[in-house]
Amino acid sequence: MARGVIVRPMTDRAFDIVVFGATGFTGRLVADYLAAHAPAKTKWALAGRNEKTLEGIRNELVAAKPQCAPSGVVVASVSDAPSLTAMARSTQVVLTTVGPYAEHGEPVVRACVDAGTDYVDITGEPEFVEKIIDTYDSEARQKKIRIVSCCGFDSIPHDLGALFTAQHLPADAPMSISGYVKSNGTFSGGTWQSAVRAMGNMRAFQKEQAARKKKRGANGQTRKVAASKAGIRYVRELHSWACPLPTIDPQIVLRSARDLDVYGPDFRYGHFARIKHVTTLVGGAVGVGVLFSLAQLPPTRALLLKVKKSGDGPSPEQRAKAFFNVTFIGEGGGRRVVTEVTGGDPGYTETSKMIAEAALTFALDRDKIPARYGVLTPAVAMGDVLRERLQKAGIGFRVVREEAMASERSN
Ligand SMILES: NC(=O)c1ccc[n+]([C@@H]2O[C@H](COP(=O)([O-])OP(=O)(O)OC[C@H]3O[C@@H](n4cnc5c(N)ncnc54)[C@H](OP(=O)(O)O)[C@@H]3O)[C@@H](O)[C@H]2O)c1
Predict the structure, then answer these.
(1) How far, in Å, from the CA of 124 to the mean position of ligand 1?
(2) What is the enclosing helix (H) or strand (E) of 204?
């Protein structure tokens, strides 16, 4: 066994789920969600580096008499590898909200792979995700564990929404799907810190990614899978402008399509922000351009990092007003389908729900999910089982319309 770690069988473990990062903004929301919504039999713990704060949160949750208060506290720090190993060995699933992941993520994955423990996170950082695939996929497959990143708004609605859309088209013909994202959500200090760092590393990452693509090659892949080439355009059907969104989401959708037959023999995916007015489109593009430029130089990057502090986040009132809607238009095999995925505040209320339900899927639905292992996407690891959980928890997945079409691949 790697590094002399003895892997305990899942049944011997003290907890079903450990929430690492429970003292942070999103981690605390995850803890609130599990306490209120996990089945009473679920054994779960709060984890982080500050024992006193963790005990305080646990006391609050116990006093509030929620359905399922945490049964323990685990003290662990990213800079203390044995503490991470002990944490990973105490549970079936590690759920981590400790970011930025490019900085703090890898030791947690290492500990889970060593301990034979399933893992979920809410990163949206492509650099981190690619490194984890390169380093841990083969060992995680051998050990039959699942390492699943991007279990928040990045990228569950898009990944499961594209899967849901593909399931409504013939799987034996070329297929193209476009996702159009509309939202008014704001973000936390932790997200700001991760985004500024990711923008600063973007150029280096793009170079590495090109080399990685060459090295991986077709890798035995028979299905053609690629990003659609559409640029900014007006989509009459949605009464909106569509602007390509350079988030991690299309990469996750395309990874799922490489692994699952339901996406057909030739699959294209495009991912867009849906914007009502051309002035918002121009303003947004200028804002992102300025931010990107400032993130490239260490002094201006340091200033940007001071704008929003770790631990801060939108208030309950702000979150209550926030929403998201992702509309998917799919075409293939002479059929056309329009679907949508909807919910409330994407970044925090719904993200904490999504990752909590993903962890519950691994902890409680092991006999229902496919026997797939390694570094996986949410759709590949949990697919319909997670979608059904999310639907019960209030996230909408619905078919808007289905019809026969005259010509293929026009979106
Ligand atoms: N994909 C999505 O849709 C989405 C949505 C929301 C957030 N996120 C991501 O989730 C991450 C967390 O965001 P947030 O707003 O919750 O951040 P946050 O409030 O700053 O929380 C960060 C957490 O990490 C912990 N931490 C930091 N360094 C640590 C270390 N060395 N060892 C152990 N724990 C450590 C902090 O513990 P202390 O309290 O001890 O400092 C805190 O619990 C960010 O990367 C963000 O981008 C993604």
Answers:
(1) 12
(2) helix 202-216
